[in-house]
Queue: 2 jobs
Job 1
Amino acid sequence: MEQCKIENLYNLNETIASEYLMTAEYPWELLDALSVFIADLGPTLDPEKYEQREKYVWVAKSAKIAPTAFLGGPLIIDEGAEIRHCAFIRGSAIVGKNAVVGNSVELKNVILFNGVQVPHYNYVGDSILGYKAHMGAGSITSNVKSDKTLVVVRDGKEEIDTERKKFGAMLGDHVEVGCNSVLNPGTVVCPGSSIYPLSSVRGVVPTGCIYKNQGEIVKRV
């Protein structure tokens, strides 16, 4: 499971949460205490660059926020980010620098690294999206199994019981997810990989690959 470790998925220079990510081996280990981390980090932010809009909600002054967006705390929206019409941020979320949270997108318990784009009708819950990861229109993270059992991350014959009931997807840096794809609970997509549109993904997609379907994952040429 080496490729699923934080150090192999993410450039930690591209998030305000870098120190927090350094405290764990695997990214899903950070989901439980994320809201506490955000609530503690917010008051330390530079008031010249960030404003506290309400309890546990900090927004960079350079961010663009649509008046119809809902901002639930704990929440940090970093510099240059754009929150578009009817976005629904339920809380426990970090939106990175120059990230885009688009029309009718819902976020819950997530870290979006700098430059992430979730611009059209996406649901992202209990997930961490790496630097410049992009989710196509209608693609979602499914964060609870239908039988409500605990999520296991599987990579071939290797597996890790996460001991979590809610776990969406961990996307490495520069991952591209095609339109209307579903990332099933426990999905890990390693850096530089792409997911075909209309895919149903589970398990680990290795670095630099193209996911065509469950039985066909090819190395990028």
Job 2
Amino acid sequence: MSQIVEVKVPDIGDFKDVPVIEILVKVGDRVKAEDSLITLESDKATMDVPSPVSGVVTELKVKVGDTVAEGSLIALVDAAKAGAGDDPKGVQSKAATPAAIPAVTSIAAPVPATLAAPVAVAVPAAAAGGNKAHASPSVRQFARELGVDVARVTGSGPKGRITQADVQAFVKGVMSGAAAVPSVSAGGGLDLLPWPKIDFSKFGEIEVKPLSRIKKISGQNLARNWAMIPAVTYHEDADITELEAFRVQMNKEHEKSGKKLTMLAFIIKAAVRALQEFPEFNTSLDGDNLVYKKYFNIAFAADTPNGLVVPVVKEADRKSVFEIAADTGALSKKAREGKLGPAEMSGACFTVSSLGGIGGTYFAPIVNAPEVAILGVNKSAMKPVWDGKQFVPRLLLPLSLTADHRVIDGALATRFNVYLAQLLADFRRVIL
């Protein structure tokens, strides 16, 4: 005798018209109580609807793409065909019924434990590894039983959702050697849509040129830093009227010797003093630790025909402004000639990216990991400044400081920027 149980959607709160995104069984499958039958996905959570009884699925009342609500009929399960070891829980014994007329019991599926905390359901199991994998709880459980990290599986379902078949295909690929299990990145990853593939030649004439090696390498670093560092940029104007006059005067006095001072050299020297005053800027994150550096190596962005490179002025705290200017000049020349060695581009504590020779007003430079801050400098401009009695012309230098907010908060970053501007306004402060 058949004992048909109607399985309905349990209480799922105020959710209405929740789409069915996956059917986990087919007609004829034997299920146990609490086995998942279908997967629903609201805008807040993904949830499995389990069978309330053990038995055989005789009919499915929904398909992928249908929408359901509390009380919607999703399947019929014949509890009379439960296996000997199955527990047909949820089914109450009924009086004998003629075989030609099967007994029908209407039972709402028990509320899955996941529904008690929908926010927790929405958090992927792979979140600890940094990747966000779209998979139902039942598929995650299936993957765990096979020792598979769902974050490493490519989904073939709607919106890239991972199905049980995807997990099985992944395992087969690894076992056959056709696919290797990727190593887990220490920095994590992002669940991004694939880059769009477009045939631009359909719209007009094109020319394809390969990226330079420098741009390939720097592009990967910049993408990582932009995605992984919670950076904030702070702007400040430095009054360099007197400093620029002093620089011009010094260059005239040393014209015959060939020595030449640049504004970049003064900025690097002032940056060293600011790092000494605010040691948090001369640090790097190492897991849960903050590494404070006792040395002062300052990097600067150098423009080359093949792209930007970042040579480093070593021990800038021990060098005069003339020596820093000589170092930046020599390193820039080697950069343009493509002769910089790895040692000349490593070990930096802080970076200065100056666009002063080109122009611009302000910009937001990207922090160069593992540093925690970078200073952007634009072209100085003469502007009217109120001195309390009248407007006077002053040469102002735009400063844009980008800092890693995990280490440096807004107040500290602003103090650093203000202090740096004060040093450039009156360079005598550097020796204090």
